[in-house]
Specification:
Blueprint (H helix, E strand, L loop, with lengths): L1 H7 L2 H11 L3 H12 L7 H13 L5 H12 L10 H8 L4
Helix pairs in contact: 4-5
């Protein structure tokens, strides 16, 4: 959500809304991103397997393919330090 808000130029509005609705949400989202980024690469294959299973059953697998793409974009953080800014920038890059 934060990467989309950043890409669309509405980060300040999103954070202001979160501050009104749930003041801890901004900090929780940053902590979640920083915690997940170094290990996101591990979920890429799993998401592709789930997508394949859905598609084999005649169901759409796009959600899980998209998740795999996002996790793959974070794979450099397996060995590089991450900040929220670098995570958001990496998520916004095309593969």
């Amino acid at each position: 959500m934060r990467a989309l808000a950043e890409a669309e130029g509405v980060s300040e509005a999103l954070l202001a809304s979160w501050a009104r609705l749930s003041p801890e949400l901004s900090q929780r989202s940053e902590q979640a991103a920083l915690g997940a980024a170094p290990k996101a690469w591990r979920w890429t294959g799993e998401m592709l397997e789930i997508a394949h299973s859905f598609e084999a059953a005649g169901l759409p697998g796009g959600f899980h393919r998209s998740a795999a793409d996002l996790y793959e974009r974070l794979s450099p953080f397996k060995t590089e330090p991450a900040t929220l800014a670098t995570i958001l920038e990496r998520l916004s890059r095309s593969p």
